[in-house]
C-alpha cells in the first residue's frame, strides 16, 4: 500500500480552503511515476507522448509532453468547446434545430451518416454523437457551426494553447494538414483543456459541466477505459488513424481526479485488431495509473488479457 505524505504547505491550503492557490502553483514532477511511464513505453515501435496530472496533489509526469502529435478524432474536443462558446454568446441555442441532408454524409465512425435525407435533428444531438460515438458527419458540421477551423484555432489561442489546432478544411494550414491530419496538439495542452472543463473555466461553469457530461458517455470502452472500474465516472475522447492512436481521459477517482493524454505517431503496427501495439500500451498505462493512484481499490484491471472484463472476445 502506498502512503502519500503531502507537503505541509499543501495540507495548510487544503484545510484552509485555498485550494485554488495550490492549483495555481507550478506542478511538481512525480519522479516515481515518471520513471514508470518511461519503462512502460520504452519498447514501443513508434513515438509515444504521455502527460499525466493529479489534480488534488498538483503532481505531473510525462513523456514528450510538449511535443506536437496528430489528434485524429480527439480534435472533436476543441470543436466541442468552441461550439459551446458560440452557444454561451447567444449565437445558437443548445437545442438549435438542424436539418440533416445527405450531402453532409461523411464516412468512418458515427451514426448520422445513416440518417435519412431531410431528417430533423438538433445541435445537442449532433454534439452528443460527435463526442460519444466520434461521429465524423456531426463533427464536420459542428466545425462549420463553430465558425470553421480559424475560429476554433483563435479560441484555442485565447485559452493559452499554442499548439492545439484544427488543420483540416482550414485555410492556410494545408501543408501542416499533410503532416498532422485533421488536428494537432501536445499531451500537456490537450490534458489542460479537459482540466479547464472539469474546473468550470470554459465559457461558463454551466457550459463546462454540460460538456463534461457529454464526455462521460463514450462508446469506445475497449482501450484505456477498459482498465478503469465501470462504476467510476470517467470523461474521455479517443482518436485513431493508421499510424497514430490517442486517448484523453479524466478519472473521477476517490483519491482525487487525475487526467492523462496518451498519444502516438509513426506507429509500426498499423493494424486494427484488439491487440494493436498502440492500444495495448494505452491499456497498460491506464491500468498502471489506476493502481498507482488508487492502490487500495478492490477492483483490479484486466490488462494483459485478450478479452474484456465481460469476457467478450476481440
From TrEMBL:
Species annotation: Salinimicrobium marinum
Catalysed conversion reaction: a beta-lactam + H2O = a substituted beta-amino acid
Top-rank taxon: Bacteria
Gene Ontology terms, MF aspect: beta-lactamase activity
Name of the protein: Beta-lactamase class A catalytic domain-containing protein
GO terms under biological process: beta-lactam antibiotic catabolic process; response to antibiotic
Spans traversing the lipid bilayer: none
Family annotation (PANTHER family): BETA-LACTAMASE, SLR0121 PROTEIN
Pfam families assigned: Beta-lactamase2
Residue stretches making up the Beta-lactamase class A catalytic domain: 49-261
SUPFAM superfamilies per record: beta-lactamase/transpeptidase-like (SSF56601)
